[in-house]
């Protein structure tokens, strides 16, 4: 049964900043979370202009509920998750990830650094709307601490998990585009420690994101693509706003889809571990299943959302997981998407295989895909989804998977139509054995949303 939620989306609460997501809103929500946690809560955030305002607000809310606050500063989401898993009782991350600059959000994590479960989100909403957060006496107010060591420790721990010497000796030529997001404080340091010949783009922290939009999609990465080609680099790397996702550009300047990166790293992780459980979402490529079959792996699919993948990885003691958007999860390290570990692992694969990235991608199972999105108001999503499912059931005999939205399984591929949990849009992904079929299925999915939305 799906619990009805009034504030929370796929992972946390994301809204326009200082409009809906005001300091008052953030402070009370943090206090509601603090009421349940009652311990040491780490906070950190991305580079958005509104992040300091919101971090101060959530600090006040947590202190008033009797929690101690450990301020980690500006850093990637996975670095906060790493800190919480190892040292603290919970955490709040101030970020809107890939959304435009006017947005911000609060991601709440449990003591393992995993996004909190639905039941806890509903409990927080009840406290927020129906009762009131705990407010302790003046002499029980929590204290604020600062931990400035986490970034260095996080980077060092990443380096412990790869063959640093081999990467350093390769002296790879890398172009890095952090999009002025949280990756600015970690990614350049990591790559320099790996002795890469590094060229940086948009690696200055700036919440206006002047160089490009925070989402690392192909249209936003044209300058990175051109720079990789102009410099003859081995690889181009791009992060989203909170640096939990990595998108690659190969040495020829080709944009590498996130599910290709997933498949490449999955292959390596299964080889290293002699098989194991891989967790992904229903929206990920068939290639993930093909590789698992070949390398003694088992794939478990969840609804879309990295916290769902992370939780399942923990339950099943999985070796690797992630999503099709460049968000890869290494559960031994962080229970969440982690751009830094992804970068280190990709460079290690390049060096160990001693092949260019384009060749490694060509060796993967070949499927063709398309991804589209269409605006749809949040209050229409349920009705639109219900009508789409009804039409498909009544007019076809195709196999359906309703784990998340609806996934229609055909002999030559699949298409998934699902409402976004973070934006007022529907997303439609399709995959098939030709590009034409993938395009056709995606357009069909979008046409169904158009048909039923007002």
Q: Short description, anyone?
A:
This protein has 454 residues and is an alpha/beta fold. It has 15 helices and 20 strands. It has four domains: 13-149, Alpha-D-Glucose-1,6-Bisphosphate, Chain A, domain 3 (3-Layer(aba) Sandwich); 161-254, Alpha-D-Glucose-1,6-Bisphosphate, subunit A, domain 3 (Alpha-D-Glucose-1,6-Bisphosphate, Chain A, domain 3, 3-Layer(aba) Sandwich); 258-362, 3-Layer(aba) Sandwich (Alpha-D-Glucose-1,6-Bisphosphate, Chain A, domain 3); 368-452, 2-Layer Sandwich (TATA-Binding Protein).
How many domains? The number is 4
Number of helices, where a helix is a run of at least 4 consecutive DSSP H or I residues: 15
The overall pLDDT average reads 96
At the first level of CATH, the class of the largest domain is Alpha Beta
Give the biggest beta sheet.
6 strands, mixed
Termini separation comes to 27 Å
Radius of gyration: 22 Å
Residue fraction in strands: 15-25%
**Low-confidence segments:** none
- Rough outline: globular
Helix content: 25-40%
Per the CATH scheme, the topology name of the largest domain is: Alpha-D-Glucose-1,6-Bisphosphate, Chain A, domain 3
Structural class: alpha/beta
CATH superfamily of the largest domain: Alpha-D-Glucose-1,6-Bisphosphate, subunit A, domain 3
Q: What topology, given as strand order, has the largest sheet?
A: 1-5-4-2-3-6
Number of strands: 20
Question: Any idea what the CATH architecture of the largest domain is?
Answer: 3-Layer(aba) Sandwich
